Each structure stands twice: as C-alpha cells, then as structure tokens.
Amino acid sequence: MLNKNLLKSCIVLCWLLIFSWNARAEENYYIDNKRVLLYKIINFWYDCLEEESQLLCQSPIRCKSKGRTQVRYDSVDKALTLEIRDGFAGLLSIFNPPDSCSGPSAFVCTFLNPKYFGSGGSVVHQDKSLGIRQIEFLKINSNQATQIRAMATDITGVLEGRIGGLMNGRIALHPCGDFIKGCQAQAQNQYPITLQLFNSITNETLATYSINPKH
Predict the structure, then answer these.
(1) Which element (helix H / strand E) includes 199?
(2) Element (H, E) at 192
C-alpha cells in the first residue's frame, strides 16, 4: 500500500497537473504549497474510501485572491470598506458553527500599516455563503482613502490554516462541527488561522489578522 504522505502528494499533484491551465484565476487555493482546484479535492473527499479519508487532515491550506476588491468610503463616518466581489475563500469554513465546540469566532486585527490606516481599527465581516465579504477600516481620512482606492486592483488577500475536516461542500479550518468527514487527530486541536492583505506591486503588508478563539 502506498505511504500515506506519498498518496496524498499524488492526489494533489494530479489535480495540479491536470488543471494547470487555470493559473490566471482571480482566486487560487493551495494545499501543501501545491495549487489545486479545491472543488475537485472536495469531490474526491466525498467519494474516497474510508482508509483514505484522513489523508488531507492537518495539511496546510491557503487561499490567495487578487484583483477582486472594490473600495467604498464614507466620509461622514470616516469608514473605508473593502468589498470583495463574490466573496473570498467561499470553499472554506473558517469559524466553528455556533454551539458546536470551543473554537474560532472572529478575526482580530494584529497589524495595520500606519502609512495607509493611521491609528484606526479594522473589522473582518464574513458572509455565511460567500466567505469573507467585507473588511472595514475605521478613522480613515480622505487622503488615506484616495491612496487605498488607487491600489484597489493590486490588493491581494491570503488566508492560511490547516484542514480540519469536510463539511457540506466546504473544507473546514476548525476542529469540530457537523462534519461529513472529520479529522480524528484534530478533534481537540485548534491550529492558527491567519489573514494577510498586501499590495502585490510594492509587496507592502497592509494589514494582518488572526483568529480569536472562543473560550
């Protein structure tokens, strides 16, 4: 029988090779740093044999999105919102379903680039069906808003975590919930989940976020 890691690598590499033409997609997913079409991986996991059901568990997974951001600015409230067209990371379940178990409940902003955001704050809003839909920035003046609007098409988002199980049409980054295929070794563990925004032209980090576990 194939070694577990070898079999997992073969599965991911097959999708990578077969669908390599899709490299210019606006949103891409990676498992173990290999680009994949995630819906194909999800379909595989639904139909795989029992002995294969743990192959993807705890693997690092990343979603990268570029050029899908629109900027909205409210000059009265001094609030700037990044609207992510069709949502971001919609094939991932980021937060535990309510009352399922202790786990992630919200992103916390850990860094804001003062060059663009001053001393303001930031909040990430998630849409249940579309993933991350809006990222809001507070205390933004008109000059800052102009700067951010000018780089809108270059703003890139990267979400990273580890695979915790298969839910209904999505791969979970959290350790428990109503799983179709769960990860046995992750049942009691919460792995870090991070979100980074950066300018793909200048490589400047704009903002970073991490999960705030629910206690």
Answers:
(1) strand 194-199
(2) none
